[in-house]
Every structure is written in structure tokens, then in C-alpha cells.
Amino acid sequence: MSRREVKHAGFLFGPVPSRRLGRSLGIDVIPAKTCSLDCIYCESGSTTHLTLRRRAFFAPDPVMAELEAFLRRHGAAVDVLTFSAAGEPTLYQPLGELAGAIKRRFPEFPLVMLTNGTLLWDPAVRRDLLPFDRVIPSLDAADEETFARLNRPHPRLEFQRVLEGLRAFRRDYGGQYHLEIVLARGVNDSPEHLHRLARLVEGIGPDRVELNTVVRPPADPVVQGLEPHEMERAAVLFPAGCTEVIGSFRSRQTESSCDDLPDRIVALVRRRPCTPEETADVLGAPVERVLQAVVDLEREGRLVRRRFHGGEFLCGETGTRDP
Ligand code: SF4
User: What is the pTM of this model?
Assistant: First the structure.
């Protein structure tokens, strides 16, 4: 395999069927499952490298080259560019340099960051996030105990420090600050916990609160999501007028080519489990072709099918990817 083919498989995935962003082209500069947390609901499986240390896992230039090539061919099928990973994107040390270069070269695409927010106490991380149009950090817990049970943090990561980082970033950042909260049944969904969480959120003051739940196969198979009516009931407790329950993804149109379909399926579902229909929708391929490819990919051991919440999901092997 050529050097360029290796890089294509490593840096870009999707466009992903994001329920909140539309067709989101994922930019992933983190080795698989390298994260400061090991959330029980993680769609990408358990964290294999739990760390707080930022590193230049890859140089920015090949990422830019890959992005240039992809958008030249498939730009019409992309709504936003999103830093996201089967890990924590702010662990990438040259993040500010890469984000600035992307904004200068592709100003027409909103640049979004999905982060667990646990490194925002670091002024360098907050500075690196300034070029982004929207940053979506997470806060699922109102106390250290729930944080430990739900997010299983790195041993040196203190809950109060994470809260301080979320507040400091609100002061520094002028872009769209959305706070994501994932609710898991029996873990952080009690009325008492939700009340305390809502007070913390008010203290941070994000532009929007996005309430989410477990809708794809999680790292811990016993974890369950909430029903839609339970999510709506929880939303009432959070700041009025800026809280939304994340709805289902609806693709506007798919024009992407079916080139390299098996590789693109794997690149997509190893970061985010998708149903065959979602996969077909996002990759611009007939569902029959996706299902044909899935048969071969299953035989080769490159993906598996898992049932969750009444649906069948295609899930990739995250494995490890050396920098
Ligand atoms: S959900 Fe995000 S923050 Fe949590 S373990 Fe997975 S990649 Fe890390």
C-alpha cells in the first residue's frame, strides 16, 4: 500500500451521519482509543491508551493534503468539517496550527470540534480551539462519583479541574459553545442528579445544551439509553430556550462517489457504528451495494454486526493505529 493510501485511511472518515451537524466529514488525528476518559457508553469501544499527555501523533501537512484531495472530489457532499475521533482530539498537540491552516484554506466550511472537554484547564488547549466555529465539549456528571462511574477518567484527572476548564473556556472563546450531555439509564438520569447538573450548566453558560443518550452499541454492553419521552422530561430541567434533545439524522442529499466503498465503510463504522441504511445514505451508495460489501468485510474480519436497541449496527474493529 502506498504512503498516501495509508494516510487516507487514517485522517478522514465519513461524511458521518451526525444527528446534529448533518453531513460531517470527520478529521481524526488521534491513534484509535487514545483518550483521557474511558466512558462506559463510548461508541468506539474501551480506551486502550488512557492518557493526559498531548503529542504530535502525526504532522499537519499530510492531513491538509488529504483534506485538499477529498474536498476537491467530494466537497458537495460535506456540510461541516469536524475534529472527532475514536479518542480525544485535543490530545493532538499541533491542533491550533492545523485548525488555523484549515480555516484559511477552506473558510466556506464551518469547523467543529467534538471534545470531551477534560483538557480545557490547559491554556494551550483553550488557545488551540480559538480558530473553531463551534466547540462541543461534554459534561455528563455533576459530581466526582458519577464522573468516575460514567466517564472512568485518567487517575490524575480531577472533576473540579474539568469544571474549571469548562468555565475558563467560556470566558476565552467567542465562537459557538455547545455543551453535550449524554444520559445513561440508572447512572446519571435521576431527577436529583439532573437538577444538580442543570445548575452546573447554568454556571458555565453555554450557547446551547445538547442532550444526548446512548443510541449505538456502547463499550459496556449493559449500558442503556433513555426513551424519547424521558429525554424530553429531562430537558425541561435545563436552561429554557437553549436546550435541545438531539434528533435523528436526516441527510439532505448524497452525491458522494462509491469509489473504494469497502474501505470507506470501514473508515466510517470503526469510529461510529451505523446501520446499513445510514451507511448507504451517507456514502451515497445503494444499500444493496453496502450489504454486498459488508458480506466480504465480515468474512475478512474487518467489521462485525451488533444488535442494539432493536437495530442492527455495523461496527468496525478500532484496534490500534500507530503514529
Ligand atoms: S466517548 Fe469520547 S471521551 Fe468517552 S471514551 Fe469514547 S472517545 Fe473518549
Answer: 0.83
